[in-house]
Amino acid sequence: MDNLITLIPINIFLIYLFYIVISRKWIPSKNMLISFLIGCCLVPIAFLSEKGISLLPFISNNENLNIGFFVLIEEFLKLLSVFLIFYFVKDKKVSFVELLGVGVGFALVENIMFGLNAGTGLYSGLLNTGLLTNLLRTTGSLILHTITVGLFALFLVYKTNKKILYLIPIIFSVIFHYLFNYKIMIGDGENFLGLFSIYWLLFLILYFIHLYFENKDTLNIKEILKKCLIFFIKFVVFIALVMFSLGIVSEYGNQLGIKDYSQKEIESAQNRQVEIEKAVDNWNPENLSDGYKKYPKESSQIYENLIIINNQYKNIIYIMENEPKSFTSDYLEFLKTGGGELATKTDELAINLYVKVAIDRYKLSVKKISENYYNSELFFNKFGFKNIEIKQTYSEYKNISDIVISNMNQLISLYNSDKTKNKDDLLSNIKEIDQQYENLNNQIDLLNKLIEANYNL
Fold this sequence. Notes:
mainly alpha; elongated; 18 helices
């Protein structure tokens, strides 16, 4: 709730600055407010529609279709709204700038939603990251939505006699929106400044065209160019101010009292630190099983790394609780990744060692299972089966033994092969085989109990 109270006025202020840039007025007109409010109302409709569409399997499993349908829904709603506002607002002719309010309103609500749910994990819903997201989206998605609405508004306001030409802004709105979303979502937002600058240029061109058509009958080309230059300067100043604010929040957010974390995040860090401390105890050389003691170098390295990570967590938690102004973005990244690069390397070491120990255990287990299998065959060949239950239990035991031996040998071969580097497959197979081995031991116990109850040995 605190973040909501903070982010709404900040976003409204940013939107108002943008309104001043595009309208050259301090107070919005009635038509502008109507367009703006309709744009705001479109977001929940689009959100619910997109939720419904994403439930369809053929769409949810295809990222490109997902993006495509989301874009079509949003553009349909915005362009339909622009059309209805232009033709059904009766009191005064709606201007090009007033129609842009649909895109501005849509961007405002969407930005607030993204700001409140910025990132994942530790970043989720944090004020600092919410501000960063909103500032960034002000220079990106706000411009995008204004362009896509503006293309259609341009054709409506400065009329064309050929109705077929209205397909041009519709098609280009969808293309521009799709490419923007594709680059952000599929490309993970890499080189966002290059992407945004393309859309800044498109917006400038769109607005220059508007200025030309708006003034061509009353002003000479020199005066129109002067208006274009003034708008260009205002737009550049706006972008520069937002980017400057982005840098300030990114670098000095904590010093300004905009904390990167809340009490919930402190508790999350504390819980993670408890997990690390347990891992330290488990990897203590004195507590290791014999299988791990065969690899003292690897197990000692894991143990030492965990001690370092544990101490780093304790230090960061102390800072979060007692010295919040000393909390840096490096600490946030450390917490977000669960312990930084060292934790990633340690996890990799632990997984490799776990697989090694499992393979060693399976080599011994195959030998042991084979011996038990051989001895059981000798036993029943000599004494036979006393009843059907023993025969069925023995048959199940043989089947499980064959499966376990086969799977263990396959995994050993897979591990020794240079073809596989996928640890996830190995871990999945180990988990499955361990379950099978547990079932086998249960079957052996059952078989032994039946032998004890039915044979006088």
